[in-house]
Design a protein that fits this description.
With 136 residues, this protein is mainly beta. The protein is built from 1 helix and 10 strands. The strands form 2 sheets. Strands 5-6-7-9-8 form a 5-stranded mixed barrel. A two-stranded antiparallel sheet has the order 1-4. The chain starts with a strand and ends with a strand.
């Protein structure tokens, strides 16, 4: 476990909220997550960005924009378009100039460096002032 400065709150309606309050004071373990893929490998968005990896959302966890939490999938076993992916949270990308964080989900037990993750998500993150925190 590593102190990453985030925590999850469950409100009375059962929704999970991910927050940056108390940064540096909370410790969490790698979460096992199911990601619904809405932008599979090869997807081209409205800004003409082609997705070289699967990208989606985690139902029931609300991101900074009030929508389901977004997640990049980085996996040597997911090199084709997918509908869903199950894995564990390995990193959090904080956009210092945006209201959202992006989560990075990979195979259970997989390990990537900050530089490896940055290279894989650069196709979108190059437009933002982002930092990556690993969850170990």
């Amino acid at each position: 476990m590593t102190i990453i400065g985030y925590f999850i709150i469950v409100n009375k309606s059962g929704w999970l909220y991910f927050s940056e309050l108390m940064k540096g004071l909370i410790t969490i373990e790698k979460l096992k997550l199911k990601v619904t893929i809405d932008r599979p490998i090869g997807y081209i968005d409205d800004y003409n960005n082609c997705y070289p990896l699967n990208y989606g959302y985690i139902s029931g966890i609300i991101g900074g924009d009030g929508e389901a939490q977004d997640a990049y999938i980085i996996s040597k076993n997911a090199m084709m378009p997918l509908n869903t992916f199950e894995g564990e949270l390995i990193a959090i990308i904080t956009r210092n100039d945006d209201i959202e964080t992006k989560w990075v989900v990979s195979d259970v037990g997989a390990s990537y460096s900050v530089n490896e993750i940055a290279d894989k998500v650069n196709f979108l993150e190059k437009y933002f002032d982002s930092s990556i925190e690993l969850i170990q």
